[in-house]
Amino acid sequence: MSAPNPSHLDPRNLFMAAAGAVLGVVLTPIVAPVFLGIVGFGAAGPIAGTAAAAIQAGIGNVAAGSLFATAQSVAMGGSIPTVITAIGAGVGAAIGAGAGDADDPPENEENADNEDNEDNADNADDGAAE
């Protein structure tokens, strides 16, 4: 008799996590600039009246290499830093693993329902006997 395979080690879940990671790496260069555009980072600089403009106003002089400078660089067509791609892979892996586990029914759910019904029936019998 073999030990049960924990769901996080299920080959299907591992496959879904790997597929999600690959998809995250592929989609990061597409999604990151779109998201930055939504926040207000434009090809010519922060767009007036947006969150990016408000952040820049709060920062004042933007230091080279800062998160704000990197975001603006990506919005202007610069390369996406490796750490951002790695974050995209991690998010994709988490979503993939969750999707792989989503359609697995909880173990013994049917038995738990039957036990609850039996307990309720026992309690009803106890009440009738008094």
From TrEMBL:
<comment type="similarity">
    <text>Belongs to the IFI6/IFI27 family.</text>
</comment>
<dbReference type="InterPro" id="IPR038213">
    <property type="entry name" value="IFI6/IFI27-like_sf"/>
</dbReference>
<protein>
    <submittedName>
        <fullName>Uncharacterized protein</fullName>
    </submittedName>
</protein>
<keyword id="KW-0472">Membrane</keyword>
<dbReference type="InterPro" id="IPR009311">
    <property type="entry name" value="IFI6/IFI27-like"/>
</dbReference>
<keyword id="KW-0812">Transmembrane</keyword>
<feature type="compositionally biased region" description="Acidic residues">
    <location>
        <begin position="101"/>
        <end position="130"/>
    </location>
</feature>
<dbReference type="GO" id="GO:0016020">
    <property type="term" value="C:membrane"/>
</dbReference>
<keyword id="KW-1133">Transmembrane helix</keyword>
<feature type="transmembrane region" description="Helical">
    <location>
        <begin position="14"/>
        <end position="39"/>
    </location>
</feature>
<feature type="region of interest" description="Disordered">
    <location>
        <begin position="97"/>
        <end position="130"/>
    </location>
</feature>
<dbReference type="Pfam" id="PF06140">
    <property type="entry name" value="Ifi-6-16"/>
</dbReference>
